[in-house]
Protein backbone atom coordinates (compact mmCIF):
# COMPACT_ATOMS: atom_id res chain seq x y z
CA UNK A 1 0.00 0.00 0.00
CA UNK A 2 2.86 2.34 0.83
CA UNK A 3 4.37 1.74 -2.61
CA UNK A 4 1.07 2.61 -4.31
CA UNK A 5 0.89 5.92 -2.40
CA UNK A 6 4.40 6.81 -3.58
CA UNK A 7 3.44 5.95 -7.17
CA UNK A 8 0.37 8.22 -7.01
CA UNK A 9 2.45 11.02 -5.48
CA UNK A 10 4.96 10.80 -8.35
CA UNK A 11 2.23 10.72 -11.03
CA UNK A 12 0.06 13.50 -9.61
CA UNK A 13 1.59 15.65 -6.82
CA UNK A 14 -1.68 17.59 -6.42
CA UNK A 15 -3.58 14.49 -5.31
CA UNK A 16 -4.55 14.70 -1.57
CA UNK A 17 -2.61 11.77 -0.07
CA UNK A 18 -2.64 12.93 3.56
CA UNK A 19 -6.02 11.28 4.14
CA UNK A 20 -4.75 7.91 2.86
CA UNK A 21 -1.54 8.20 4.85
CA UNK A 22 -3.55 8.80 8.05
CA UNK A 23 -5.80 5.84 7.23
CA UNK A 24 -2.75 3.66 6.65
CA UNK A 25 -1.17 4.74 9.97
CA UNK A 26 -4.44 4.01 11.80
CA UNK A 27 -4.63 0.59 10.13
CA UNK A 28 -1.04 -0.27 11.15
CA UNK A 29 -1.71 0.89 14.73
CA UNK A 30 -4.91 -1.18 14.84
CA UNK A 31 -3.06 -4.29 13.62
CA UNK A 32 -0.30 -3.78 16.18
CA UNK A 33 -2.84 -3.38 18.99
CA UNK A 34 -4.69 -6.47 17.79
CA UNK A 35 -1.44 -8.48 17.76
CA UNK A 36 -0.60 -7.30 21.30
CA UNK A 37 -4.03 -8.38 22.55
CA UNK A 38 -3.65 -11.74 20.81
CA UNK A 39 -0.25 -12.28 22.46
CA UNK A 40 -1.69 -11.32 25.86
CA UNK A 41 -4.61 -13.74 25.44
CA UNK A 42 -2.19 -16.47 24.38
CA UNK A 43 -0.03 -15.84 27.47
CA UNK A 44 -3.09 -16.01 29.76
CA UNK A 45 -4.27 -19.24 28.13
CA UNK A 46 -0.80 -20.73 28.54
CA UNK A 47 -0.73 -19.72 32.22
CA UNK A 48 -4.17 -21.29 32.80
CA UNK A 49 -2.97 -24.48 31.13
CA UNK A 50 0.26 -24.57 33.17
CA UNK A 51 -1.69 -23.98 36.39
CA UNK A 52 -4.13 -26.79 35.59
CA UNK A 53 -1.24 -29.16 34.80
CA UNK A 54 0.48 -28.18 38.03
CA UNK A 55 -2.74 -28.79 39.99
CA UNK A 56 -3.24 -32.15 38.28
CA UNK A 57 0.29 -33.18 39.27
CA UNK A 58 -0.29 -31.90 42.80
CA UNK A 59 -3.40 -34.00 43.40
CA UNK A 60 -2.41 -37.02 41.28
CA UNK A 61 -3.06 -40.20 43.22
CA UNK A 62 -5.13 -38.42 45.85
CA UNK A 63 -8.83 -38.69 46.52
CA UNK A 64 -11.03 -36.65 48.80
CA UNK A 65 -13.58 -37.88 51.34
CA UNK A 66 -17.07 -36.69 50.50
CA UNK A 67 -19.09 -38.07 53.45
CA UNK A 68 -19.31 -36.30 56.81
CA UNK A 69 -16.90 -38.97 58.06
CA UNK A 70 -15.93 -42.47 56.98
CA UNK A 71 -14.45 -45.37 58.88
CA UNK A 72 -10.93 -46.40 57.91
CA UNK A 73 -10.99 -50.22 58.01
CA UNK A 74 -8.13 -52.57 58.85
CA UNK A 75 -9.12 -55.06 56.11
CA UNK A 76 -11.37 -54.76 53.02
CA UNK A 77 -14.50 -56.11 54.73
CA UNK A 78 -17.49 -54.60 56.49
CA UNK A 79 -16.83 -56.70 59.61
CA UNK A 80 -13.21 -55.55 59.84
CA UNK A 81 -11.94 -53.50 62.78
CA UNK A 82 -12.20 -49.73 62.48
CA UNK A 83 -8.90 -47.90 62.67
CA UNK A 84 -10.51 -44.50 62.97
CA UNK A 85 -12.58 -41.80 61.30
CA UNK A 86 -11.53 -39.77 58.27
CA UNK A 87 -13.57 -36.58 57.97
CA UNK A 88 -15.09 -34.73 55.02
CA UNK A 89 -12.75 -32.90 52.61
CA UNK A 90 -9.75 -34.88 53.86
CA UNK A 91 -7.17 -35.96 51.31
CA UNK A 92 -6.25 -39.62 51.21
CA UNK A 93 -3.61 -41.17 48.97
CA UNK A 94 -4.97 -44.07 46.94
CA UNK A 95 -2.45 -46.93 47.17
CA UNK A 96 -4.38 -49.66 45.38
CA UNK A 97 -7.74 -50.60 43.93
CA UNK A 98 -8.88 -53.96 45.29
CA UNK A 99 -10.39 -56.16 42.55
CA UNK A 100 -13.89 -57.56 43.01
CA UNK A 101 -14.54 -55.54 46.16
CA UNK A 102 -15.98 -52.09 46.73
CA UNK A 103 -12.85 -51.09 48.69
CA UNK A 104 -9.70 -49.15 47.92
CA UNK A 105 -6.48 -49.20 49.92
CA UNK A 106 -5.56 -45.70 51.11
CA UNK A 107 -3.00 -43.91 53.24
CA UNK A 108 -4.16 -41.08 55.47
CA UNK A 109 -1.38 -38.69 56.36
CA UNK A 110 1.97 -40.39 56.56
CA UNK A 111 1.30 -43.55 58.52
CA UNK A 112 -2.36 -44.55 58.71
CA UNK A 113 -3.02 -47.20 56.04
CA UNK A 114 -6.37 -48.91 55.66
CA UNK A 115 -9.37 -49.42 53.43
CA UNK A 116 -12.28 -47.18 52.44
CA UNK A 117 -15.33 -47.81 50.31
CA UNK A 118 -14.88 -46.47 46.78
CA UNK A 119 -18.15 -44.56 46.80
CA UNK A 120 -17.08 -42.63 49.92
CA UNK A 121 -14.34 -40.72 48.08
CA UNK A 122 -14.14 -38.58 44.96
CA UNK A 123 -11.13 -38.19 42.70
CA UNK A 124 -11.42 -34.44 42.13
CA UNK A 125 -12.14 -31.76 44.67
CA UNK A 126 -14.13 -29.81 42.11
CA UNK A 127 -16.96 -32.31 42.45
CA UNK A 128 -17.32 -31.54 46.17
CA UNK A 129 -19.84 -29.02 47.40
CA UNK A 130 -17.57 -26.53 49.20
CA UNK A 131 -17.06 -22.81 49.28
CA UNK A 132 -14.45 -21.39 46.92
CA UNK A 133 -12.07 -20.38 49.73
CA UNK A 134 -12.27 -23.83 51.31
CA UNK A 135 -11.65 -25.49 47.95
CA UNK A 136 -8.59 -23.33 47.25
CA UNK A 137 -7.24 -24.05 50.74
CA UNK A 138 -7.73 -27.78 50.29
CA UNK A 139 -5.97 -27.74 46.93
CA UNK A 140 -3.00 -25.92 48.45
CA UNK A 141 -2.47 -27.91 51.61
CA UNK A 142 -3.63 -31.50 51.07
CA UNK A 143 -5.07 -31.44 54.56
CA UNK A 144 -6.68 -34.32 56.37
CA UNK A 145 -8.56 -34.88 59.58
CA UNK A 146 -8.25 -38.28 61.23
CA UNK A 147 -9.35 -39.50 64.64
CA UNK A 148 -7.96 -42.87 65.69
CA UNK A 149 -10.24 -45.37 67.40
CA UNK A 150 -9.26 -46.23 71.01
CA UNK A 151 -7.97 -49.70 70.07
CA UNK A 152 -5.93 -48.35 67.16
CA UNK A 153 -4.59 -45.49 69.32
CA UNK A 154 -3.49 -48.05 71.95
CA UNK A 155 -1.71 -50.06 69.25
CA UNK A 156 0.04 -46.94 67.92
CA UNK A 157 1.13 -46.00 71.45
CA UNK A 158 2.44 -49.52 72.12
CA UNK A 159 4.37 -49.52 68.81
CA UNK A 160 5.85 -46.10 69.60
CA UNK A 161 6.94 -47.33 73.06
CA UNK A 162 8.54 -50.45 71.57
CA UNK A 163 10.36 -48.37 68.96
CA UNK A 164 11.61 -45.95 71.62
CA UNK A 165 12.83 -48.90 73.74
CA UNK A 166 14.71 -50.31 70.73
CA UNK A 167 16.36 -46.93 70.09
CA UNK A 168 17.37 -46.63 73.74
CA UNK A 169 18.83 -50.14 73.67
CA UNK A 170 20.85 -49.30 70.53
CA UNK A 171 22.12 -46.00 71.93
CA UNK A 172 23.00 -47.38 75.38
CA UNK A 173 25.30 -50.37 75.04
CA UNK A 174 25.51 -52.71 78.03
CA UNK A 175 27.89 -51.55 80.71
CA UNK A 176 31.12 -53.48 81.12
CA UNK A 177 31.93 -55.07 84.39
CA UNK A 178 35.42 -54.41 85.55
CA UNK A 179 37.06 -57.30 87.31
CA UNK A 180 39.96 -56.58 89.59
CA UNK A 181 42.96 -58.69 89.08
CA UNK A 182 45.06 -60.42 91.84
Describe the structure.
This protein is an alpha+beta fold and 182 residues long. It has 2 domains: 2-57; 62-168, SH3 type barrels (Roll), CATH 2.30.30. Helices cover 46% and strands 21% of the residues. It is built from 4 helices and 8 strands, in the order ααβββββββαβα. It has a 5-stranded antiparallel β-sheet with strand order 6-5-4-1-7, with no helix packed on it. The protein has a 3-stranded antiparallel β-sheet with strand order 2-3-8. A hairpin with a 5-residue loop joins β4 (91-97) and β5.
Topology (SSEs and partners):
Layout: H1 2-11, H2 18-58, E1 62-65, E2 69-73, E3 82-87, E4 91-97, E5 103-108, E6 112-117, E7 121-122, H3 132-141, E8 146-148, H4 150-171
Antiparallel strand pairs: 1-4, 1-7, 2-3, 3-8, 4-5, 5-6
* Average residue-wise pLDDT: 80
Largest pleated sheet = 5 strands, antiparallel
Estimate nothing, just give the exact number of structural domains.
2
Annotated CATH topology of the largest domain: SH3 type barrels
Measured distance between first and last alpha carbons: 119 Å
At the fourth level of CATH, the homologous superfamily of the largest domain is: SH3 Domains
Pick out the low-confidence regions: none
Q: What CATH first level of the largest domain would be assigned? A: Mainly Beta
Structural class: alpha+beta
User: Helix tally?
Assistant: 4
SSE order, one letter for each helix or strand: HHEEEEEEEHEH
Helix content: 40-55%
Task: Give me the CATH architecture of the largest domain, please.
Answer: Roll
Amino acid sequence: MEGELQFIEVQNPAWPLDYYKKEMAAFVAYNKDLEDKRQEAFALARKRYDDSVQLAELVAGFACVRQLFVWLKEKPAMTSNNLGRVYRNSYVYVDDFIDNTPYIKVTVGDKHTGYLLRNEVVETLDSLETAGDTLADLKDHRSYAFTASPAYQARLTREAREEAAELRAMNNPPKRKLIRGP
